[in-house]
Write a structure and sequence with these properties.
The chain is an alpha/beta fold and about 160 residues long. It is globular and about 40 Å long. Helices cover about 35% and strands about 15% of the residues. It has a single domain, classed as Rossmann fold, CATH 3.40.50. The model has no long low-confidence stretch (mean pLDDT about 95). A four-stranded parallel sheet has the order 2-1-3-4. β1, α1 and β2 form a beta-alpha-beta unit. It has five helices and four strands, in the order βαβααβαβα.
Amino acid sequence: MGKISQKTRVLMVCVGNICRSPIAEAVMDEVIIRAGLQKEWHVESAAIEGWHSGCIPDERALRVLAKHNISYIGYARVLTTEDFMKFDYIFGMDRSNLAALKRMAPHNATAKVLLLGNFGLKPDDRVIEDPYYTVGEAPFENIYQKCHIACQNFLEQARQQQIL
């Protein structure tokens, strides 16, 4: 299965697809829209594990996105083998996600598997930690801020052909 369109396709991945990756997806979409590139880019998110398949994101994630005037309508889904051919870039949120993605990638994968935090975040701040077991919205706001910086930097570098 090859790319289904000429758009550059990005997939954000975390463990359950209800906290970090939906925030990253929504933020990347917002960055793309603000750059006027929505006809050229497509973004989705997925989970490594299927625990939350079919569920909406964590309420705290949705509240943080709403606070930044970003709406999100999506449901958790599990990463598929086809995703490694369908998407140009697949981003893990932490080193464990990245390792799992590399293990799961088929030998004929065409997607570049990368750590989202490697784009514009300081070396000791590149991991986007899982906030699922935390209390309150502050960890989700931190994820939003990190994703905003990383997504802007990724898009800028991609547009300059530095990572394509």
